[in-house]
Amino acid sequence: MSFPDLDRFDRSILKILAEDGRISVADLAREIGLSKSPTQARLKRLEASGVIQGYRAMLDPIRLGLDHVAFVEVRLTDTREKALAEFNAAVRKTAEVEQAHMIASNFDYLLKVRTATMSEYRRVLAEKISSLPHVANTSTFVAMEAVKETGMLGGFEHQP
Hints:
single chain, alpha+beta, elongated
């Protein structure tokens, strides 16, 4: 993946914001080695271009009682564009689905589903996931422990 329009200052800004989205512009400027005005201009440009899509609070799902994670392979009955669009729209509305990825494999989607308990997961699977448009079948894999969960910039700082 290449980011030709991003220089080292932009990449530094993104790396720092990924770790601390509440950092002040003054502190951000100090950390990247620029003054406040050019740092602010870079932030506005990164936001306007869509590289920075927004700012969110990182919640601890364990402290919120949502420590049951299941990964669900989903096979569809139909993989034409209209069916995929219908599935995508419906899965986006399913609150318990934390992530959904179309997969190039012997199944069509991989979902990360977060609930409080196994019995709640079984209800979500039966009442919501299985009734999503065009679902043929599912296979569930229960996570025992999250060993690593990072933000999206996993290898970003290694870009030229």
